[in-house]
Amino acid sequence: MGRRKGQDVDGWLVIDKDLHIGSTDVVNRTRRLFDARKAGHGGTLDPLATGILPVAFGQATKTIPYIMDATKRYRFTLCLGESRTTDDREGEVLARSGIRPEDEVLRACLPALTGHIMQVPPVYSALKVDGERAYDLARAGRPPDLPPRPARIDSITLVERPDRDHAVFEVQSGKGVYMRSLARDIALACGTVGHISVLRRTKCGPFDERHAITLDKLAQNDDKADALLALLRPVPTALADIPALAVTEAEAQALRWGQSPPLPVSDGLMPTMEDGTIFQAREGECLVGLCRVQEGRMKPIRIFESLRYGDRDVDYS
């Protein structure tokens, strides 16, 4: 008997991930609940992190790169006085310090860690070094020397100081920023050491806590197919920050055939889009696909099948 392939399910499900479960496990569980043929997630959360994990089904998987690139928000607690091998509370203690910086000192170090910076990833990360994962090398006693990588951090705010050993920060950042590295670097910039003890992602692109449902609550609907499908957000939700351009039925069909028709002219005017601009091609209320401007033409990048544009409010209560 061949492997069961599952159903064609399209849309985004926003999970509020709990502690001690990996992102891939979340995808596998939700995929089974929906009996979905294809699924993926829009940005890894460590097992010790909670919060927003968008799961893509079917055609939504074509939009995952745009969620991966989107702005994200986090809230984390920095535990001062101990550095750990993993830069979070799971690791072994590497060093200790009795220095506990005042709030003013913590705030003073934040501007240097904001903007376009170079950041050294945690040794325990999924980055590959000569074909092997960094965390596998570290666990084998061969921690790699990871070079700094470009990172974009839009803002860091000290929001709370529960006690002298802990400080709570809120961060808005771009793609590929490691909060464990940021927490480590804040402590080092203040003349001490530290690690993350609590981490939560509160926003991922257009998705935030208002849109999220826990796995436990989701499982309560496991025998109600209509109720599960009603929780999905439309595929184009992930593309909210990408400009849209109206196309005719003939232009839409040309794009579906892989052709690159000229940019549409409206009222005698051609859209003012530079070469390389990514945009949504829409035929009425339907999302045809994602295109790139190339020498006055629309070059298709991702084409979708029979997707209506728009969003709906989802009640997770």
TrEMBL record:
Role, per record: Responsible for synthesis of pseudouridine from uracil-55 in the psi GC loop of transfer RNAs.
Where does the tRNA pseudouridylate synthase B C-terminal domain start and stop, copy by copy?
Answer: 180-239
Q: Which UniProt keywords apply?
A: Isomerase, tRNA processing
GO MF annotation terms: RNA binding; tRNA pseudouridine(55) synthase activity
What is this protein called in UniProt? tRNA pseudouridine synthase B
Recorded hits in Pfam families, A to Z, give: TruB_C_2, TruB_N
Q: Can you tell which superkingdom this protein's organism belongs to?
A: Bacteria
Q: Which residues form the active site?
A: 46
Q: Which Gene3D superfamilies match?
A: Pseudouridine synthase
Q: In its UniProt record, which GO terms are filed under biological process?
A: mRNA pseudouridine synthesis; tRNA pseudouridine synthesis
Give the EC number(s) listed in the UniProt record.
5.4.99.25
Q: Which residues form the Pseudouridine synthase II N-terminal domain?
A: 31-179
Reaction(s) catalyzed by this protein?
uridine(55) in tRNA = pseudouridine(55) in tRNA
